[in-house]
Amino acid sequence: MSASQAAVHGLLKTLVAFDTTSAKSNLKLIEYVRTSLESHGVASTLIPSEDGRKASLFATIGPAGEGGIGLSGHSDCVPVEGQTWGCDPFTLTARDGKLYGRGVCDMKGFLGCVLASVPLFMSHQLKEPLHIIVSYDEEVGCTGVRPLIARLGHDLPRARAIIVGEPTMMGVIEAHKRIDAYRTTVTGREAHSSLQKLGVNAISIAAELVAEFDRAEVMLAQPTNDRFDPPSSTVQVGTIEGGIALNIVPKTCTFQWQVRGLPEADPDFAPKRLKAHAEEMLLPRMRRVAPAASIETLHQGSVPAFLAKPGSEAVALAMALTGANSTSTVSYGRKPGCSRRLAARRLSAVRATSLRPMRRMSS
User: Fold this and answer.
1) Which pLDDT belongs to residue 2?
2) b/e 316-344 (16+ beta carbons within 10 angstroms → b)
3) SS3 sequence, 79-132?
């Protein structure tokens, strides 16, 4: 193992040991990163959450001021409960030439590579700054990076290009789909199951709405873009909950659903179709029995589609760093809107695992 690989391995071992599941605090990991950077003479700015339980970190190496390159990664990981692991998920384990642990690839491996590269960055007379960004809550909508983004160009310098270190097998990803999340609540009327005609069964109405999604997906098949897999927009219901007892007509039913849309697709197509079906086909029938019946849909949040601009500096840089000769797309997204929100601030952004030691990291 080379010195650089050993450094990444040691840093990754420490990073994985921090249980930064999104429901938990990331402050111990952030303090470790801050201390590690400080040992090389690099100061950091912490951007805490409103409740003080979490924080993002922003640090700059090289000359102060606007511009430069940002290396962005998130500190949180998804839960391990209910999963079968062949090792302790929070203990880095080497087996068959691979490293196993929660978050090894997504995305503590990238953070380890960045931290291990700090001495290399410091050894050069950089002509423009290099920024290190560590955020939180990416896995649950990436609310953590948004306060940090709001400060770019104000009390924090704004980079001209951002590389997001999501695991992509070293592929340079220059586009991803839009993601919109919704919660629909159906309110009917309770009744005893022996007198069900006196009630409005919210679960039955919800089932009709879910069936409408199957029909809507046929319409979502246009337009298509063969660079994506699948090549069209998609919609799916992820959770559904309703009713209180077997012998009671359920008054309420709630389901959560998601649309993953192509960059060129109409993001409002699915919710408009659901609303039209509800108002034209379902609510009149429901309100003949229960005038107060309703179907309400709440837009819970979105990740704008990302598409790098032609001639993007970030894409060119990522291709040079990785040795790639082509770019790709993904149907998942950088959930905070980090890439697109930064791009909206006149930045070019690209998803790539940009440091070669990451070729050794797998999970």
Assistant:
1) 59
2) ebbbebbebeebbbbeebbbbbbbbbbbe
3) CCCCCCCCCCCCCCEEECCEEECCCHHHHHHHHHHHHHCHHHHHCCCCCCCEEE
**Confidence band of 221 (pLDDT split at 50, 70, 90):** confident
Tell me how far apart the alpha carbons of residues 248 and 86 are, in angstroms, rounded to a whole number: 45
- Report CA torsion sign: 74, 172, 67, 153: negative
User: In 3D, which of 132, 130, 119 has the Cα closest to residue 74?
Assistant: 132
CA distances for 105 relative to 18, 38, 165, 180, 191, angstroms? 15, 25, 9, 25, 51
- The pTM assigned to this predicted structure is 0.76
CA–CA distance, 91 with 363 (Å, rounded to integer): 12
- Is 66 a catalytic site residue? no
Q: Give the span between the Cα atoms of 109 and 341, in whole angstroms.
A: 24
Q: Is 19 a catalytic residue?
A: no
Most confident of 101-110, 300-309, 338-347: 101-110
Catalytic annotation, pick one of 19, 137, 138, 174:
138
Catalytic residue among 76, 106, 137, 166: 76
CA distance 133 to 329: 23
Name 254's Cβ contacts closer than 8 Å, sequence gap at least 6. 183, 184, 185, 186, 206, 240, 241, 242
Q: Which two tokens stand for residue 54?
A: 């979490």
Q: Is the separation of the CB atoms in 117 and 123 below 8 Å?
A: no
Question: How does pLDDT run across 117-153, given as a tens digit for each residue?
Answer: 999 999 999 999 999 999 999 988 778 899 999 999 9
